[in-house]
Design goal:
Length: 324
């Protein structure tokens, strides 16, 4: 394989730049031409390519976001859009593509390589949600949870000073892994996630127990996809039933996606970027490179996108006990 391309797709995640850097430098080391695709699948459709060299990825390992930009492409979901993308890829002489993204990106890649099997594709898990099968951690997850922890530590200072109850909403429309891990780390009184049903009465009981123990501040972590309707709705219901504490809501939003990637995310991104190029050289195709128990594992796209992550029951129990 002489010519590969790299793109970032879907939501941005801290560590994507470190991964781009690893793909480019590994490819150049092995004598390949490396092309960057601007704005994900939209860049493939529009033929928005740039030649990458060692200098083009210098001083980016510490930067959040993605220098190649990212987008979600409706046109790529159509056969006509994928044909445009293939024509541009073929005209450039690109033989393999590394796609850094999440489940939606891999679904698109799986269809594309089925229709055009002469183009080999390897995926790298870049999403803050950590909800893909085939890797213990996704690129961006560690940075996101540390961002949440730092923010909630600050919020708890105010909660304690004013004896308030804070509902802090974090990202996680379909998966509550950000909420669960960060909630344990900040000592949250409760953690509400999509994978489990929220019982308001049980939550009130927990708050009553803390009130009797004269706890001076309360923080509840809510994943945005929680089945009770999100932080504002839950806070309103709780305030009506439990008026001993003034209730406040904090939505952390997109600050969880940005910022300098942690050491863990930089190293994971670098390793998976390297392994993706090696995988293409070895003829691998339609697979995601992940890290499981410290070892790199290649998982077919069909398995990464269909798997629903189960929440570890032990972690849930730990969170419950620690909130007492």
């Amino acid at each position: 394989m002489k010519h590969i391309a790299v793109l970032t797709s879907g939501g941005d995640a801290p560590g994507m730049n470190a991964c781009i850097r690893a793909v480019v430098r590994t490819g150049l080391y092995h004598g390949m031409k490396v092309t960057g695709v601007v704005a994900g699948y939209e860049g493939l459709i529009n033929g928005d390519f740039r030649d990458m060299d060692y200098a083009s990825v210098g001083n980016i390992i510490q930067r959040g976001g993605t220098i190649l930009k990212t987008a979600r492409s409706k046109e790529f979901m159509t056969a006509e859009g994928r044909k445009k993308a293939y024509d541009h890829v073929n005209a450039q002489g690109i033989e393999g593509i590394v796609i850094i993204g999440g489940d939606g990106s891999f679904r698109g890649a799986d269809v594309f390589t089925t229709e055009y099997p002469d183009i080999k594709v390897i995926g790298i898990p870049g999403t803050i949600d950590n909800d893909l099968f085939g890797t213990d951690f996704t690129i961006g997850y560690d940075t996101a949870i540390n961002t949440v922890v730092n923010a909630v530590d600050n919020i708890r200072d105010t909660a304690t000073s004013h004896n308030r109850l804070f509902f802090v909403e974090v990202m996680g429309r379909d998966a509550g892994l950000i909420a669960l891990r960060s909630g344990i780390a900040v000592g949250a009184e409760a953690i509400l996630i999509p994978e489990t049903k929220t019982h308001i009465d049980k939550l009130i009981t927990q708050l009553e127990r803390g009130w009797k123990r004269q706890k001076s501040g309360h923080v509840i972590i809510v994943a945005e996809g929680d089945d009770a309707g999100g932080a504002f709705k839950i806070a309103e219901i709780v305030q009506q039933k439990f008026d001993k504490l003034e209730t406040k809501v904090a939505i952390l939003g997109h600050i969880q996606r940005g910022g300098h990637p942690t050491c863990m995310d930089r190293v994971l991104a670098t390793r998976l970027g390297y392994e993706s190029v090696i995988g293409l050289r070895e003829g691998k195709n339609r697979m995601m490179a992940g890290q499981v128990s410290g070892q790199v594992k290649f998982t077919p796209f069909s398995q990464t996108v269909k798997h629903i992550m189960d929440v570890n029951d032990t972690i849930l129990k730990i969170a419950e006990i620690m909130s007492l």
